[in-house]
Please model this.
Amino acid sequence: MKKLLHIIATCRGKESRTLKVSDAFIKAFKLKHPECNIDELNLFDAKLPELTVKKLDGKYVLLGGGELAGELKEAWKDIEAHIERFLAADIYLISTPMWNFNIPYILKHYIDIIVQPKYLFRYTQKGPEGLAKNKKMIVITSRGGDYSENSPFHAYDLQEPYLRTIFGFTGITDITFVIAQPMDALGPEVAAQKIKEAEGRAVKVAQEI
Ligand SMILES: Cc1cc2nc3c(=O)[nH]c(=O)nc-3n(C[C@H](O)[C@H](O)[C@H](O)COP(=O)(O)O)c2cc1C
Model:
């Protein structure tokens, strides 16, 4: 049975253009995999743990090859719970708008929580090794402007390269982007057309999984 973790990084609910495209993906995915298990994690509702000094002390113990014990183990309970939930999935759907040419802070917060030594990567003599193997990721995003390859603003897109880099580092290299753009720069009619096109691509991606 396929297990999909839907990570939501927009707080706009029904107003979200990103989630409109994701809804089309999920409908098509459910049709293809009626037995699938979908776990929804809305990061704005999740009350993600703060990375306190104690939690960071734990991270440095792990980076040094040690094990967490006592107070540090206790401090890491909620981090471990998020990592466990993440690793339980074999497919990820990330729904995220572009914010300031990158991802919203809440998604960066989540990444800072789950990307941990021993759990998602480890250092070896040959360099870092990602530990999240045999996973697939679909990133559905919408942007106010247009950053497509032929646009003069392509280099401003720090979102796709960042997500490919950080999740690639954890071992997730099979990543497909579905992008709706521009959502704001050319008015509502263009936005509506671009959402429709992105929904079509999202359905195709879902059917091919
Ligand atoms: C805080 C904030 C920052 C944004 N930064 C950018 C940006 O750098 N580039 C861009 O093209 N659009 C930017 N936008 C516009 C959103 O990416 C766009 O409206 C998107 O469709 C919103 O997605 P949503 O409806 O799913 O929330 C920003 C919007 C907000 C609220």
Observations:
- The first strand starts at residue 3 and ends at 8.
- The chain has seven helices and seven strands.
- The longest helix spans residues 187-208.
- The beta strands are 3-8, 37-42, 91-97, 121-124, 127-130, 136-142, 174-180.
